Amino acid sequence: MNRLIIPLFYCSIMVSCSNERTKMNYPISKKVDTTDTYFKTTVADPYRWLEDDNSEETKAWVKEQNKVTDEFLNTIPFKAKIKERLTEVWNYPKVGVPFKKGDLYFHYRNDGLQNQSVLYVQSNLEDKARVLLDPNKLSEDGTVALANISVSNDSKYLAYLIARSGSDWNEVFVKDIATGKDVSDHLKWIKFSVVSWYKDGFFYAAYDVPKTGTELSNTNEYHKVYYHKLGNKQAEDELIYQDSNFPKRLYGVSVTDDEKYLILSAMSASHGNALYFKEVENKSDDFKMITDELNFEHHIIDDVNGSLLMYTNNGAPKYRLVSVDVNNPSKENWKNVIAEKENVLSSVKLAGGKLVATYMKDAYSKIEILNMNGSFDYEFELPGIGTSGAFSGKKDEMTAFYSFESFTSPEIAYKYNFESKKSEVFYQPKINFNPEDFITEQKFYTSKDGTKIPMFIIHKKSLELNGNNPCLLYGYGGFNISLTPYFTPRRLVWLENGGVYVVANLRGGGEFGEDWHQAGTKLNKQNVFDDCISAAEFLIEKKYTNTSKLALKGGSNGGLLVGAVINQRPDLFKVAIPEVGVMDMLRYHKFTIGWAWAGDYGTSEESEEMFKYLYNYSPIHNIENKDYPAVMVTTADHDDRVVPAHSFKYMATLQEKYQGSNPVVIRIESNAGHGAGMPTSKQIEEYADIWSFIFYNMGIDPDIK
Q1: What is the pLDDT of residue 705?
Q2: Gap between the Cα atoms of 518 and 436, Å rounded
Q3: CA atoms of 302 and 356, how far apart (whole Å)
Q4: What's the pLDDT at 19?
Q5: Which residue numbers are catalytic?
Q6: How much is the CA Rg of the chain, to the nearest whole Å?
Q7: Are residues 76 and 381 in contact, defined by beta-carbon separation less than 8 angstroms?
Q8: Intervals of the chain under pLDDT 50
């Protein structure tokens, strides 16, 4: 392979504080003579070298790109005011929904601007809670985050998983809850795993130790299940399950509440799983198969009266709850407990001797309380249109907890009594923002093929439909993920300054069940882009905004959405923010866990038809020499979910080909990953940059309070 190298150098950036801009000068990215051949089609990949995030050349490129971006952002005169207002609205106490384990209650709390939320414990709800684990003390800059926790059934021990700098790699530590001190146990190289307690230890899944320098980029293969006994070294852990015939499968393990059954889940993609079980105490027994149909979701809720309750979309695109006889677990013997209905059954919990069935109706929550045989008991009253989550309770106790939030009201924690059928507020935050000044509408619009698509539109009640409002359209459209109403302080600056915030429930998501999901996958992926384009056209037609005031934003699979849509219809948007996006659709499956996304995307190697389809929308491969919106890509140096090479190669290509006057820049965060666990300080800085970039490129000087 011949390498034609153009040295990388830095040219100063020129930008004025007015809306008239001089054309920007970017660092020139070297090009190499790298090609791949797919089904007799040769595809150039001149920025392949940027896939090596450990090379000095890539590090230099990152440094120079950040210098360009920082200089541009620092010329925006109102950026400091936006950051100050974000800090104000973010600074309110947040208390999570309590949950009970053994005789103890646990909850998370954040005083307001703490980088990470703190875990508290109390013996009863009337006692003063004490700090059990403060992740803010694990690192000075808040970049070590709590990834997950698991409390032993006797509530003596807390296993907690930490993530460093946003990586998907986890480490496990164990704390004695009574003393608050860590014991000697320390496990590493754990990924995509929960901890499931059994007697004096726990089950977990992990990978072999990766080679030095490849931790954040190499393909993750040969997931294995182990049992760790407290006090032992990780090297002494018992291997419970592995299957070398399927290196690209993920395994998850859980134990039923009574510690009788061990449940083994096997995944070959990001959606769907096979399911197996065995009696935990009988080590000689092999796992018994419930189903090996990997294309459907199968999740055990618990065991009840000798049967396993399983939540599944197998035979029910909008999900159902079935009873699985442990003596005859095959599919033909499953019995409906909650049959499929018109709305999507999004979760089932056992509490208060009842089944708590949460449904999605047009992407917002509805709850029914059912008897244990699945018969309807009563409708559970929610405060309005929003999302109910974190329903926690014991199947034999009458007290439970749940949360409720909307786009403009922060999460409220409620305490519920099954005997009186009444809720009371457990904790309601006070925030420097008046939700009564705003309204959330739900509108349905028509996509290109005639499909009706819902969207949530949030704005001031005083909004005039004059076609001149700044508007941000947010979308995702993939992996069966549903965009339901949720609160975040990060969007309040936008709303306060007349911004319209829109969430479109594109196909590919799970809002209307598995059929809706499949309608946006593989050879149907263009439906997602069409849905997004039609959403933008609807907002313009109905005079919420116009093309000079419309921004498009999305992260991860949503970053792919942004990249593909502005390639196809750059004329619709003034600003685009693709965050941690999947931008190289021909090579995405070659990095870390990317292979697991093939269920939604397909791969460039599986067939000529699939290759051509991916090639025709892949963001990197469809950038042309034409006008584009102002683009700010965001990514992070420790993102090992969607590796930053996607964003690096996309930006190098865009800067090479784009000849217009709009800025096209990349913001690369350090010591951060795909988003999870990002400290509050970094979130505020990031969104100060995002809102500043959007307002400035729309020619708007926001009136910050």
Answers
A1: 67
A2: 38
A3: 13
A4: 41
A5: 556, 674
A6: 25
A7: no
A8: 1-21
Cβ-Cβ contacts under 8 Å for 183 (sequence gap 6 or more): 157, 174, 175, 176, 230, 231
Beta strands in 285-421 (DSSP E): 288-291, 298-304, 307-312, 320-325, 335-338, 344-351, 354-361, 364-370, 376-380, 387-393, 399-405, 412-417
The CATH class, in words, for 94-243 is mainly beta
Amino acid present at 4: L
Asked if residues 504 and 472 have their Cβ atoms less than 8 Å apart, the reply is no
- Residue 21, pLDDT score: 45
Distance in angstroms (rounded) separating the CA atoms of residues 659 and 416: 60
Output b/e per residue, 448-483; b: 16+ Cβ within 10 A: eeebebbbbbbbbeeeeeeeebbbbbbbbbbbbbbb
**CA 578 to chain CA centroid, nearest Å:** 14
Which one-letter DSSP state was computed for residue 666? E
DSSP for 187-203 reads EEEE-S---EEETTEEE
pLDDT digit string, tens, across residues 277-324? 999 998 778 999 999 999 999 999 999 988 999 999 999 999 999 999
> What is the per-residue pLDDT for 297?
96
pLDDT confidence of residue 23: 66
> Domain 35-87+433-697 sits in which CATH superfamily?
Alpha/Beta hydrolase fold, catalytic domain (3.40.50.1820)
C-beta separation of 599 from 557 below 8 A: no
| Total residues found in the chain within this entry | 705
Q: Report the candidate in 517, 672, 651 with the shortest Cα–Cα distance to residue 577.
A: 651
